[in-house]
Amino acid sequence: MTNALHVSAPEGVPFIDFSRELDFPVAEVFRAHRDPELIVQWLGPRGLKMEIDHYDFTTGGSYKYTHTGPDGVAYDFSGIFHTVRENEFAIQTFEFSGYPDVVSIESQTFEDLGDGRTRLTAHAVYPSMEARDGMAASGMEEGLGEGYDRLEELLGTLSEKTPQEAS
Amino acid sequence: MTNALHVSAPEGVPFIDFSRELDFPVAEVFRAHRDPELIVQWLGPRGLKMEIDHYDFTTGGSYKYTHTGPDGVAYDFSGIFHTVRENEFAIQTFEFSGYPDVVSIESQTFEDLGDGRTRLTAHAVYPSMEARDGMAASGMEEGLGEGYDRLEELLGTLSEKTPQEAS
């Protein structure tokens, strides 16, 4: 069984908060957020093809990637990492090519729960209520949930390749 | 006489909006936002000493500067430029060292009003109502207003040095 994704879009303020626990150590979870060769294997919903233009998960670094659906339609995403602290914390901007100049900002905490488990907690802030509501209605929750399920599957595969206490 | 600064902090949402017209052409106003040697002469309230660590006003660039008050107390500010379009538009993150990891994001439009005049319009978004209210109560409006007054004084000085239609 997988861990549950908790998402909330509070009334009246342009935020989306979510959290997800993972049955893997914080260093492994962080590595899967930093290494483009791993990110490309889990970020986003199933059934999309992801291609990374660049992904520099460091303070001051930037990223750009494309998700292509089964219909061949491509979606570009890009942003900048304002802060990245290893195994701990990141703040990044986020822009979808379909809504140019509508840029959100997301902070993400990597919390070591002990026993080789991690909790991810994120707070995303949108420049308008319309932008927040549009994101919440876009299938974001399903995409996030599938992404984290894929992340756990990937980390399970990596653990099998290099046995450790992880799982 | 100087142009008026209009600031609003709308009820219930974590935004601050402001606008300011300037009696100078958009290219001059933009240049004063890009060139660190000019920024250091106007950004922030009167009576503070500004020192720039770095200020790279380009897409993907970053900045860091320090304001030091007459009491010798120093305040650091830093962030990243998500987007910069010449004479037109910029989006940047903003962090004050006094509130680490509380990062806001601000979009700014440079609008050519014709006749050598420009309107700056900005929309700043905070990660919580508390952060927005704290910023609004921090003397931000006075600091912004004095900064733009200083900007007009600076641009006036530059126009005298290189005569043009500007003023």
TrEMBL record, chains A, B:
Q: Which domain of life is it from?
A: Bacteria
Q: What Pfam families does the database record attribute to this sequence?
A: AHSA1 (PF08327)
Q: Which InterPro entries match?
A: ASHA1/2-like_C, START-like_dom_sf
Q: Where is the Activator of Hsp90 ATPase homologue 1/2-like C-terminal domain?
A: 23-156
Give the UniProt family note: Belongs to the AHA1 family.
**What's the protein called, per UniProt?**
SRPBCC family protein
This protein's species is Arthrobacter pullicola
- Lineage, top ranks: Bacteria, Bacillati, Actinomycetota, Actinomycetes, Micrococcales
